[in-house]
Amino acid sequence: MVIVAAISDSDQSREIAARADELARAFDDRLHLVHVTEETEYTRIVEKQSGTRETDTGSVEDNAAGRAAEGLDEVVSADYEVVGRVGNPGKKVVEYAAEVDARYIVIGGRSRSPVGKALFGSVTQSILLNADRPVVTLTTPE
């Protein structure tokens, strides 16, 4: 099976990757580090690159995923694959986990007040509500 870890450009990705690595090693599963580029960011990057989806080193989403995964090999000892997607992060992580039949999804989040959750959408909340498999959530204070 697969452990899916949702990573971003945040410092919390190190902790997410480390916890996902522990699970992958404990279950002898593969580890996939998934980074989702939001559509607006993707469009901005493509327009900046003269309208092409491909770069000299690969697709925009794969390059973004590779940048998000930089340095994570310091905390990951299992073999891993870096996966890039474009779209709504909550939706794309859940879709990818279903696609690879993930055992667990490992995500990060912030502890937020009920008002904060109501006013601002939460990728973490979206994944928790829509995933059809166990989700390990690592939180940091708001």
TrEMBL record:
InterPro entries, A to Z: Rossmann-like_a/b/a_fold, UspA
Domain UspA, residue spans: 3-136
A Pfam family the protein falls into: Usp
Top-rank taxon, per record: Archaea
Compositionally biased tracts (Basic and acidic residues): 45-56
Region (Disordered): 45-68
SUPFAM superfamilies according to UniProt: Adenine nucleotide alpha hydrolases-like
Classification via PANTHER family: STRESS RESPONSE PROTEIN NHAX (PTHR46268), UNIVERSAL STRESS PROTEIN UP12 (PTHR46268:SF6)
Family, as annotated: Belongs to the universal stress protein A family.
Protein name: UspA domain protein
Protein species of origin: Halalkalicoccus jeotgali (strain DSM 18796 / CECT 7217 / JCM 14584 / KCTC 4019 / B3)
